[in-house]
From TrEMBL:
<keyword id="KW-0256">Endoplasmic reticulum</keyword>
<comment type="subunit">
    <text>Homotrimer; The trimer binds only one molecule of glutathione.</text>
</comment>
<keyword id="KW-0472">Membrane</keyword>
<dbReference type="GO" id="GO:0005789">
    <property type="term" value="C:endoplasmic reticulum membrane"/>
</dbReference>
<keyword id="KW-0812">Transmembrane</keyword>
<dbReference type="InterPro" id="IPR001129">
    <property type="entry name" value="Membr-assoc_MAPEG"/>
</dbReference>
<keyword id="KW-0808">Transferase</keyword>
<comment type="similarity">
    <text>Belongs to the MAPEG family.</text>
</comment>
<dbReference type="GO" id="GO:0004364">
    <property type="term" value="F:glutathione transferase activity"/>
</dbReference>
<keyword id="KW-0496">Mitochondrion</keyword>
<keyword id="KW-0007">Acetylation</keyword>
<comment type="function">
    <text>Conjugation of reduced glutathione to a wide number of exogenous and endogenous hydrophobic electrophiles.</text>
</comment>
<keyword id="KW-1133">Transmembrane helix</keyword>
<protein>
    <recommendedName>
        <fullName>Microsomal glutathione S-transferase 1</fullName>
        <ecNumber>2.5.1.18</ecNumber>
    </recommendedName>
</protein>
<dbReference type="Pfam" id="PF01124">
    <property type="entry name" value="MAPEG"/>
</dbReference>
<keyword id="KW-1000">Mitochondrion outer membrane</keyword>
<dbReference type="InterPro" id="IPR023352">
    <property type="entry name" value="MAPEG-like_dom_sf"/>
</dbReference>
Length: 155
């Protein structure tokens, strides 16, 4: 794959991962509004987050985040979001470095293709509390894609 094709594909993968992260954040906000649980999964709870907001503001925010129906587990959502930050960022930085170097091996595209698939499977396994080893295997697959890109940077 040529460098421009690789960088275009990388941009699409990065956009997908960012949208997944933004969606996770919105789901956290939605679940917090439904359950009124503003502390689960936080290291620091700001006082302005627990004060009662005007009903009109709360109603607007609930409407914007579709805060009706059952809430997802906030602990799982925040745990997954932390996992995204600690895994997806390194992958994207390595892929960007390979793009800038213009020295990506042909198999680097497979890592770029497989990584989002592993991350979506991991997300579904994490959020639905699917039995192991599904979550562990999907996480390992994503890590191996990251390691493959790291090794490509050394070649």
């Amino acid at each position: 794959m040529e460098s421009t094709d690789f960088s275009t594909f990388l941009a699409k993968v990065a956009a997908f991962l960012v949208m997944k992260s933004v969606t996770t954040s919105l789901l956290i906000v939605r679940s917090r509004l439904i359950t009124k649980d503003y502390s689960t999964g936080r290291y620091f709870l700001a006082k302005e987050d627990v004060v009662t907001h005007p009903k009109s503001f709360e109603a607007l925010f609930k409407l914007l985040t579709c805060s009706v129906g059952p809430a997802l587990d906030i602990g799982r959502l925040t745990g997954y979001q932390n996992n995204c930050v600690s895994n997806e960022l390194f992958f994207l930085v390595l892929a960007l470095c390979l793009t800038q170097s213009g020295n990506q091996p042909s198999w680097a595209t497979q890592s770029l293709t497989l990584f989002p698939i592993f991350r979506v499977v991991h997300m579904l396994a994490y959020l639905t509390a699917a039995p192991q080893p599904l979550r562990g295997l999907s996480w390992t697959g994503g890590v191996l894609c990251t390691v493959a890109l790291a090794l490509a940077a050394f070649s």
